[in-house]
Design goal:
- This protein has 265 residues and is an alpha/beta fold.
- The protein has a domain at 51-92 and 134-257.
- The chain has helices at 32-42, 44-51, 78-84, 103-115, 127-141, 166-174, 186-189, 222-240, 249-261; strands spanning 54-56, 67-71, 90-95, 118-121, 145-148, 160-161, 178-184, 203-206, 244-245.
- The chain has a seven-stranded mixed beta sheet, with helices on both faces.
- Helix 1 packs across helix 4.
- The longest helix is centred in the C-terminal third of the chain and has 19 residues, at 222-240.
- Mean pLDDT is 81; it is low at 1-30.
- It comes from Enemella dayhoffiae.
- This is 1-acyl-sn-glycerol-3-phosphate acyltransferase.
Length: 265
Amino acid sequence: MPAPDKLPEEPGTELVQVDPLNDRIQGSGGGRSLYWLFKNVLLGPGLKRIFRPIVEGAENVPTHGPAIIACNHLSIADWLFTPLALRRRITYVAKSDYFTGTGLKGMLQRRFFAGTGQVPIDRSGGKASEGALRAGLRVLRRGELFGIFPEGTRSHDGKLYKGRTGVARLALEAQVPVIPTAVINTDVIAPVNKHFGRVVAPIVKFGRPLDFSRYQGMAEDRFILRSITDEVMYAIMELSGQEYVDLYATEAKELAKQEAGGGPG
């Protein structure tokens, strides 16, 4: 298997990062007890009782061994309800800002995000992005489930946007299947830029595993990476029923801002 640091990182791809001092995955291997405490005692039972989530296709997720959970991204609630749908832990990514706060609030925030199965995103590029790729691979090489939102950011209008190729790089490097996943109604529960929406039943759908072993050894071919990513996004679209837009979500958000402001911002 090629060394991870030989792979170029696509600008904007969001993966996880490694602690540069000891090469440890922040928020992944640690905090396991806290994760299960949140899921099974402090948070999970209440969420299930109030929202009554609906799960479809959970049998498509392997009961053991590594796999990538590639999901659409409608709301901050996505990373709450998807793990509740499975018995296995899913390690997700989160903005590094959530792990760098100070004082009591910062400490509680770090413990919460680490304890709910999240690790920090590094958006700075360069060598830091290489470390991010190493960390994502390490989660999978431990035989765990790694959750990723290929769109890279939340959809601002409920549409499904073009995926970043980080999901393809991980699938080829780790030689693991990708489980296309769709969440529905989470944007109603926790709308963008609002504290709370309405109590509705969120739906989590897991599709059949996608096997990309036919592309093994082609992880440096950008056309192959795009082909894999588009296949993943198409599978997510079929599950979610969303309208697909062949544009990155960040670009779409910027265009929306410009249109709302009557011109370039």
